[in-house]
What does this fold into?
Amino acid sequence: MFEATLAGSLPKPFWLAETNKLWPQWNSEGQEREIAKRDATLFWLKAQEDAGLDIVSDGEQSRQHFVHGFLEFVDGIDREHKVKMGIRNNRYDAMVPQVVSKLTMKGRAHPEAKIARAHTKKKLKFTLPGPMTIVDTVADQHYGDRVKMAMAFAELLNKEARALEADGVDMIQFDEPAFNAFTKEASTWGIDCLPCAIEGLKCTTAVHICYGYGIQQNIDWKNSLGGEWRQYEEFFPALAKSRIKQVSLECTHSRVPPDLMRLLDGKDVLVGVIDVASDQVETPEEVAATIGQAMKFVPKEHLFPCTNCGLAPMDREIALKKLDALGAGAKLARERYA
Ligand code: ZN
It folds into this structure.
């Protein structure tokens, strides 16, 4: 019960890439870079195990960015000529690559899952960007229709997801922060793309929907959302009807009314008990208390303590302490509520 896990990313060590960045530059090239990625993956696997987490991940150490780390392996995209686009419903501008022809995979996007699998006996989780979030991160010069392009990405994601399953990954999570920016579209075509992405998978499937990393643009956006964040309310009912088994959401220190978790009846809920937008480290007592609160709305056998979002841009020493708090808080909750 209360199997603890992470939303996904972890900070990259200084010997692998620039620190405290969402889109860091690598510190080395070629073989040296590959070895550094592997070493960083092993470091974080050990740290998660030592913290007492039950489901571990590679911490996204082998990709530069949670969306572009996948897109790098997709053909049909012009990365040379980036264009400026407002993303997450114009929350901020980014220079994005353009889709210029039919999308196909160049090969495996994430062969590094095998490395993680070889070095832990714990359940292994792996994250991929969701179709809607990808579409909100590239410009379209070919499909002429966002839904069509999203479905094309969903097919490619499915290919990679099946390969990850064959590598021994236990949980595959699709990250869809765009759902909170486009709540109406999320409840229709955003969620409609997911069956295609998970088709044929026997492993556990999950969707992560958050209010973003703790970067300034997101903090400003959150401050504009008012006293209650009710975005989840618009698409959770549709998500509850889908075949996705788990939903990862923000909880602690957010203004999401916790009773919205009730809308996910029947799903495993990965409840954010660790705030990624603050460097203040939670105490195990606080983590256990958040789990206790969530138990009012989620049956305990469906409740998985998790982080609100990834920890990628965070200071690594703080991230380590937050992992410990998560593991210790989940243990305390098991003693208290089992
Ligand atoms: Zn997130």
